Amino acid sequence: MDAKRFGSFGRATPPARKAISADEAIALLKRGEAKTGSLLGYGNGRSYGDSCQNDAGMVVDMRPLNRIRSFNAETGLLEADAGTLLCDIIAYAAPHGFFPAVVPGTHFVTLGGAIANDVHGKNHHRRGTFGCHVEALTLLRSDGRTYRCSETDNVLLFRATIGGMGLTGLILSASIKLMRVPSLDIMERATRFRDLGEFFDLGEAADQANEYAVAWIDQLAGGRGRGRGLLFTGNHAEHGSHAAAHAGTRLSVPVQPPFNVLNRPFLTVFNAAYRWKKGKSPAPRQAGYQGFFFPLDGVRDWNRLYGPRGLFQHQSVVPEANARHTVPALLDAARRAGQGSFLTVLKRFGDVRSPALLSFLRPGYTLTLDFPNRGERTLRLLAELDRITVEAGGAVNPYKDARMGPEIFAASFPQWQRLEALRDPAFMSSFWTRTAKRLDAGRGVAEAAE
C-alpha cells in the first residue's frame, strides 16, 4: 500500500511511512497481535496537522469500510461504517428530509473522523458538536474485543472515543441522529460590519435568530478598516431542494505550484473583491447547501495553492469575557508578522456541552487562521498566537495543529490524562507523541526525582 496517499491536508508534515488496510488491522487486533503504539485509524486525510499521522507506526486505511447499514426515515437514525463519507450520508438521507445536525467545513470527512475529532459547524450555539448526535458506536480494541459504546454501555469509552483523535481503538461503525429539515437549501444573509466591536454587538442576536452564523474577517485590512468583515447567517429554506448535489469537484489544482500562490498582493485584492461581492446586498437569498457549508470542496486539491511546503492552520477558542480584547490581539499579531491568512473565520460557540472527555469546544469565540509554511518565521507567529490564546484562558485546537508544544496542549486541555488513561496501548499518533507522551515522560522524571 502506497503510504504517500496518507498525508495530512496541511501538507506541512510528512505523509505516513507505513499503511495497512482496515481488514488487515481488524485481523491483527482480533488475534491480539497488534504491537504497542503501532496503529492509528486514518479517514480521508482532512485533518490539517499530525493528529491523523503515526510516524512511529502504521495508519489504517478506513475508507473501504463505507457501507450505510440502516436508516430510519421516521426518526432520522442512521447507522454506517466508520469510513463512510459525510457527502454520502447527506445524499442518502436528503430525499427523506434529513440532514446531519452538525457539519464541518468539508463534506469529504469520514464518519469515524468526524467522531474522533468531535467536529463542529456553524450552529454550535444550537446543536453543539458532532458528538452530541452520536447515539452509539462500535470500537475494536487491542484486547481483541469489540465494544458497543453509548451513554448506557461502556460510557467512559464512549466519551473518550468522541474527540479522542482515534486513540481509544478502531471505530468500526456508528449510529447518528440526523436533523429533519424542510429542504437542503439555505436562506442566507450577509451583513457587513465595520469592525470587531460591531461584530460582537451583532453576534449574540444573530445566534438567537438563526440556525447558522459565522463571520469572515478581512484579516489584512488596517487603519479604519481594521477588523471589518461579513457576518453570514442562514436557515434551511422552507421551499427548496431535497436532492443532494453531486459531491464531485468542478475545478481542480492539477499540479503543485512551485511557490505560494496565496501571497499578500493576491489576498489584498481577493479580500476586497470578496467583501464587495458577498456584501453588496443585505437581502436574504436562497443558496445551495454546498456553497453555504462547503465552498472550497468545489476545488479539488486547493491546498496545493499554498506551495510545496504546505500550510499551518491555527484555531483558537477564548472565553466570551476576554474575546473583545483577545481576538483583535490575535489578528494584530498576524498583521505585525506580515502574514496573510486566506481563510479567516470567527464564530461564537454556545454552552451546549459535548459528551467528549477531551473536546476543543467550549463557550466563547473561536478564530481560525491559516498561513503558508514559511518555516521559522511562521512557527514564531504560531507560537505567539498560542501564547495570546492560553493567557486569555483559551485553548488551541489539536486536530488543526501540526506543531504546538506540550505546555500549550496541557494549558488547553488540563484533563488530558483522562484520555491517556483510556487510550488503547496499541494506538498512537504523532500528535500524541509530541504532546501528551512528553508530558507523561516529564511527569515520570519529576516523580522519580522526588
TrEMBL record:
Residues 1-181 form the FAD-binding PCMH-type domain. Keywords: FAD, Flavoprotein. The keyword Flavoprotein applies. The keyword Cytoplasm does not apply. Signal peptide: none annotated. This is FAD-binding oxidoreductase. The lineage of its organism: Bacteria, Pseudomonadati, Pseudomonadota, Alphaproteobacteria, Hyphomicrobiales.
